[in-house]
Amino acid sequence: MEDRNLLTIEHMKKHFGDTSVLFDISLKVNKGEVVSVIGPSGSGKSTLLRCATLLEEMDDGSLIYSGRYAAKSEGDKSVYASKEDLRKIKRSFGLVFQNFNLFPHYSVIQNITDAPISVAGVGREEAVSKARQLLDMFGLSDKENAYPCELSGGQQQRVAIARALALEPEILFFDEPTSALDPLLTGEVLSVIRRLADEHMTMVIVTHEMEFAREVSDRILFIEKGYVVEEGTPEELFASDNPRVRDFIGSIRK
């Protein structure tokens, strides 16, 4: 039987100096699942994503991608795999930031093709062909030679999603992908993520868009003060008896 598990996080802990941010986070994500992470500001959601995508090192806990250990808990600390192994593991996921993080001096097509060519060794012709397919999918075919400063925020975020997909990751992470956008542009980006969900792209999404999370997620985690307070289906979370979960969802939806 095929193992569908793409990501396993076991007892992740993280502190910055004397400040503990993540206390004991465990999470499994299976192929084709959409998992949303919600919670108040400062609860550790973005730190969880940064540790999961190797932008930050955990202090303790294990991180496993498709059975390959990126980090393993040994003696109350995380011991990371070799640089070579981590380089291979990084190819299995993509990350979309809230502030786009496009290269301002690169055109749209250059932003999308840079990593496939320079990191994955894909031929330029193949990389450009793939980039144009993605731009067409996201309604940006006429923007391939534009620069980020010439695009709206929604267009920039769609380019950022295309850039992440260009490496054909197994799992895609989103860190509050609409927080820098106004409501009209938010709809543009959410429609792209909704389409990816319909195509069974495996995703972990940190978001404050409650109705969107309810619509696209298979599971939702509510995190507060560095702990997973509750985890379940959207139906279970939105009908939660936990007063903190209920109050948070109610305050965000107003």
Report the structural category.
alpha/beta
- CATH class, anyone? Alpha Beta
- Report how far apart the termini are: 45 Å
Total beta strands: 11
Poorly predicted segments: none
So, the CATH homologous superfamily? P-loop containing nucleotide triphosphate hydrolases
Strand order of the largest sheet: 7-8-9-3-10-11
Q: How large is the radius of gyration?
A: 18 Å
Helical proportion? 25-40%
What share of the residues does DSSP label as strand, in percent? 25-35%
In the CATH hierarchy, the architecture is 3-Layer(aba) Sandwich
What is the name of the CATH topology? Answer: Rossmann fold
Principal-axes geometry comes out as globular
Q: Biggest β-sheet: count, sense, barrel?
A: 6 strands, mixed
